[in-house]
Design goal:
10 helices
């Protein structure tokens, strides 16, 4: 019970930190707004009916923005803010364990990102009947978790909030832009298949085109592999920065 109370306390602190930071919270709002705006604009230009290609493009945009901009920045900037204010080391030298801090830090962003992924599907008028909900939620959860862990890596590497934004930029370019433009280039599409963002956007594109989607062994390997790699990198940086208790 004491462990749960500590985890809850960390999650509440993170919720307050993130929800009161306008620069962080603008990300989820911007994601939803951009998807809705693009849908409206494309609908006007196409006479009201969106082609599957346009729906796929809008879905890829929304999901990629959510996983990259929201995940990297919400988690990374929050940790960088704690480092900037010198509260992170104080917290880690208290009775809070590393795993409690880890789960508490990603809990709110993780839940929010999965909700936004569902909202993006709704905005794009994807019928829930054509979506394998369990598979989509599983892949969305795995991709969101990877994004959150990478956000923690960004936060540990950053000296301050501005530095966190700079570190996030190349990651966002790779993990967001490649899946978005994967349909325009065969090489980019091939590379996208090896990115966790590409796995989820590929699934969403299938929904847009009315195709059934089956989780392939490569997709599972990519999600599990990148999750393990990101966690290992986080643990190395976590220990190297001296946050682990003896």
């Amino acid at each position: 019970m004491d462990n749960i109370n500590k985890l809850t306390a960390v999650a509440q602190i993170k919720w307050i930190c993130i929800s009161r930071n306008t620069a962080i919270m603008i990300g989820p709002l911007l994601t939803v707004a951009m998807v809705w705006i693009f849908k409206v604009l494309y609908s006007i230009n196409s006479g009201g009916d969106l082609s599957p290609i346009l729906v796929s493009l809008i879905l890829s945009l929304g999901i990629s923005l959510n996983l990259c901009m929201d995940g990297f920045l919400m988690v990374g900037t929050a940790i960088a803010e704690e480092k900037e204010k010198h509260t992170l080391r104080v917290l880690m030298t208290s009775s809070v364990t590393g795993i409690q801090y880890f789960i508490g830090s990603i809990l709110f962003p993780f839940v929010l990102m999965n909700i936004i992924n569902l909202v993006v599907l709704e905005i794009c008028d994807i019928s829930i009947s054509q979506v394998p909900v369990a598979t989509f939620l599983l892949v969305s959860a795995a991709a969101s978790l990877i994004s959150c862990v990478m956000g923690m890596i960004v936060g540990l590497c950053a000296k301050n909030q501005m530095n966190a934004n700079l570190i996030s930029s190349p990651l966002m370019i790779v993990f967001m832009m490649i899946p978005m433009f994967g349909n325009l280039s065969e090489k980019l599409h091939h590379i996208s298949g090896f990115l966790f963002t590409g796995v989820l956007t590929e699934m969403a594109s299938g929904f847009a085109e009315g195709m059934s989607y089956t989780l392939k062994p490569l997709d599972i390997a990519v999600l599990i592999g990148e999750l393990i790699i990101s966690i290992l990198v986080f643990l190395v940086l976590y220990r190297r920065n001296g946050y682990e208790k003896d």
